[in-house]
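FIELD: query
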Amino acid sequence: MRSRMIWFAFFVVVIDAMGIGLLMPVLPDILEELTGGDISQTAQVAMALTVVYAGMQFLFGPLIGSLSDRFGRRPVLLLSIGALGLDYILLAIAPTVFLLFIGRIIAGIAGATQSTAVAVAADLSDGENRAKTMGLVFAGFGLGFIIGPALGGLLGWLGTEQPAFLGPQLQAFFGQLGNRAPMYMAALLSLANFAFGFFVFKESLPLKNRRPFSLLRANPLGAILSIRHLRGIFLLLAVIFLFGVAQVVYPAVWSFFARAAVGWNVGQVGLSLTIVGIGFFVVQAVLVGPLTKRFGEGGVLMIGLGFNLIAFTVLTFARQDWLIWAGIPISALGILVGPAASALLSKSVDETRQGEVQGISASLNAIAFLIGPIILTNTFSFYTGSDAPVFWPGAPFGIAALIVVVCIPLMILFLRGRQASSAVEEHAA
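FIELD: result
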């Protein structure tokens, strides 16, 4: 039963990641269709959609995490997944940009459950296997990036091109769906996961570990202030936040970058994102456990930052297909940062605050999703617009690389402080 519950948490993260991955290959075409703008202008609208989505996650991440600490993980996850399935239907039929914004608001609220899914992993694991279990749950993000872009690229291509091998009936079917076909599939998968969780997922949080709900802890700023007494945690939170800003470069500009830099179409963008997702999945499902055992969570996090620095630097100057393909596996290794940071954060608090602290992490990532697209998308538009001083579609990745450079010394300071604190505690004992 415990294994089934962990797998349900895994699929929650899968569906959440799909919400990002499905839209990425087809979003430029949808926005061009609805707005009539060029790639630089549609990138701006995509930025606004991302900011709205992130804003909702920022506001509701701690709330949902705290509600799960009070009422349990099961009702929170089931309600959110059901709402997400209905939201995908709204996105599929939206005839205006305004309704796309409404859909992203709902998706941001319902998709703020990643912290609760991670809290489930914390509930069902102990100190020895916590990083491994969280690595499995985070691998769901990679799988979502496999399924999402693959379906988004494939179904978007079938809906827009209607190739002859489909036959007249399927051609007519996909022709009606058009580039919205991925949204219908996402709705189906979300509602199927709701049914799976309803029958399989039992509560993971014991009654003895639940605590009263507090609005102070449930709002983003109050939640962060509530843990200010934890020594050294703000350094780790700063790294999580800054890295989140850098990592936003992929959902914010990848589809637009690939088209501007090397002229890729919907199918090629979807394929590249699928390969990225495969890499994310393999790294988190296979490598996190052994690497953590060998180097510890802090060592794995530093390794992940190093790979991200290399990948961002390569993509900054990529104007040929082979350079982009070379950067993809390196960026996949960079995903090591996520589970390592969550495991370190989980070890910083007791069992009654897992939902809260993971909600704080989710809020910081949401703030990153608010700030990151504004910086990175505007940079992309500036260097790809008609009046650009130089055509440089990889410029946003250069900014991401600089952010990672800042993260490295902060992480070193955090690890040194953690070692010093452990030494003091051992001496006192």
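FIELD: remark
Residues 2-202+232-428 form a domain with the Growth Hormone; Chain: A; fold (CATH 1.20.1250.20).
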